[in-house]
Amino acid sequence: MAKPLDYExxxxxxxxxxxxxRGELYLRASxxxxxxxxxxxxxxxxxxxxxxxxxxxxxxxxxxCQAPFLLDDPNVGLLxxxxxxxxxxxxxxxxxxxxxAYSDSRGIPGVRKEVAEFIERxxxxxxxxxxxxxxxxASKGVMQMLNAIIRNENxxxxxxxxxxxxxxxxxxxxxxxxxxxxxxxxxxxSLDFNNIRQSIASARSKGIxxxxxxxxxxxxxxxxxxxxxxxxxxxxxxxxxxxxxxxDEVYQQNIYxxxxxxxxxxxxxxxxxxxxxxxxxxxxFHTVSKGYWGECGQRGGYFEMTNLSxxxxxxxxxxxxxxxxxxxxxxxxxxxxxxxxxxxxISYFKFEQESKAIMESLRKRARIMTDGFNSCRNVVCNFTxxxxxxxxxxxxxxxxxxxxxxxxKAPDVLYCLKLLEATGISTVPGSGxxxxxxxxxxxxxxxxAEEDMPAIxxxxxxxxxxxxxxxxxxxxxxxx
Length: 480
Ligand code: DCS
Prior knowledge:
Blueprint: H1 12-16, H2 24-34, E1 40-41, H3 56-66, H4 76-79, H5 82-94, H6 109-123, E2 132-135, H7 137-149, E3 155-161, H8 166-173, E4 177-182, H9 193-205, E5 209-216, H10 228-241, E6 244-248, H11 265-272, H12 276-279, E7 282-287, E8 301-306, H13 310-322, H14 328-338, H15 348-374, E9 379-380, E10 389-390, E11 393-394, H16 398-406, H17 411-423, E12 425-426, E13 428-429, E14 442-445, H18 453-471
Parallel strand pairs: 1-12, 3-4, 3-5, 5-6, 6-7
Antiparallel strand pairs: 2-8, 7-8, 9-11, 10-14, 13-14
Helix pairs in contact: 2-17, 3-5, 3-14, 6-14, 7-8, 10-11, 15-18, 16-17, 17-18
Ligand DCS is lined by residues 21, 44-46, 137-139, 164, 166, 216, 220, 248, 250, 287, 289, 296, 301.
């Protein structure tokens, strides 16, 4: 008889869950690395792993919080600037026993207040710290909300395709149904409401109750920044269709063009006024993992809830309490991110200098990468307007598609595996994010060091053009 934790008797939802960012390509890359091959890990948006240096000020503050005895050292002022010392004392006072103690399950009240002040400065509308929960990265917040929404397999969540697989994975894990809506690649990955209406209608005809809609803005893996008009229409749509909007805004600092600055869904909702501003349920997510912080390993995040009833907030609090407390150092990083040094502070100049240098370099890298892809045979790529990724479409020759079929692999997986073997560049095949039938992509981050970028793109081009040479024949390509 199978034991409870034997593979055959595991929870089926666990077995069904797929997460491509650490999938087949990643495993093969790790193997090759063990064999001594140099791998360029562009499969995960993990900036520090690719050499990005941490910002000085937040690390000084957290170092002091972690080692509070340094604050009693008479030489502390020689090692740390006075504003970092003051801020460390501020956070230590907000905790009940320092970084080694659990906090409230929603996070430290004083940090939630700093987040609320940030949201008000950003949007021009106040919020209540009681509606903000701190989490271990945005991922945990997304999972908590999906868990609260999904009741059974007939509950549907509208998710953009291509999407970041956290959504597909968590929906499967909680036993709900993913209802895909396709982003329009030809229109720079924008939302097409006719298409969304069709998705909803088709789900309903199968007995699915569509309850929530996810947007990722700026987009992962697609890199687009949604226009204000698009988000307004989206909010109207959620209002009419009675959907809670889950706004994944973790890349709000990562903007590489000036035409469409980031505007939060929450600001647009309040700008629209009643009845929408009082009715549409919205949960917005943010993190310390992205932006010029890139502090992925610290696991800091928050979500903010708009138009949720106090009884619902209490239930979400109760469930958060099962995990006792989000990671406390992560909470302090969040406090620092939403409340960085201000003009006049001792650390302001250095902080500005460091953060601007990172942003300017990311902007250049976004350009080098998109231009590089567009210079390759049978590759087309929208400009990375925001976030951390490039998502080129690869027009695969019919013969390459056949070769993949006979190897029992998806065609884009075959392409990415060959790319990895030939160049060491570790990407994620588009099929891991979802894409239209018969169309192929790959995702790479724009995070390798700026000085390494031209060589990486050259090596990609060399591989791609040779691949096309090898597989092209008279029968044509996958469609655009
Ligand atoms: N939402 C989106 C859209 C993301 O891309 C990520 C991480 C998260 C949420 C969760 O991040 P944290 O839990 O760290 O806050 N992106 C992954 C990716 O695609 N590559 O690296 C990580």
